[in-house]
Amino acid sequence: MARLLHVPLALILCGAIPAGLKAGPIHDAAFFGKIDTIQSLLDGGADIDERDTFDRTALHRAAGKASPEVVEFLINKGADLEAKDKLGWTPLVVSANGGHAATAAALLLHGADADSRDDAGKTPLFQAAFAGHFGVVKILVEAGADVHARSKLQKDTALFTAIAFGREAIVTLHSNKQLYIDPESATGTRIYRARVAD
Fold first, then answer.
1. What is the pTM for the complete model shown?
2. Domain locations along the chain
């Protein structure tokens, strides 16, 4: 009997599993951290923002790994910081979802939008909280990410997501901007809202 292999979608989306995606040589070079190869490809006329079959660029692929040097290189060569894939994920969302704090910091340092929204209205902060990546959450909060931002469909905040998935370290995050829970009742359902304490 054949067995189905279930690969978490998040691993595929964050760039950790490139199989199944049709990508160009620049994507592979970025994924594997081959800066010399990227430079050779660019010298030969490659498009730095070439898209793979999931509409990801080389910067998305580098952001999905702990590759701040590759991210810096691509940005300095003119890569689009706000390029969106088929889910509306920017390289910063890919990095946040993958838990790559140094990569996320490099993207933010170069002007990546800390509050970019994907097609579901989720921000990099939401994705980092969902995945339990404390270091990335801290960097995003320090960069001024909107802790009140809500997703489109469920209207969840990053804090609610952290609570729902048991990410206790994220609930009381930062000494200057402590997140806390404000429960209120609505239609018999307990709802949590993220607030920033002054």
1. 0.78
2. 9-146
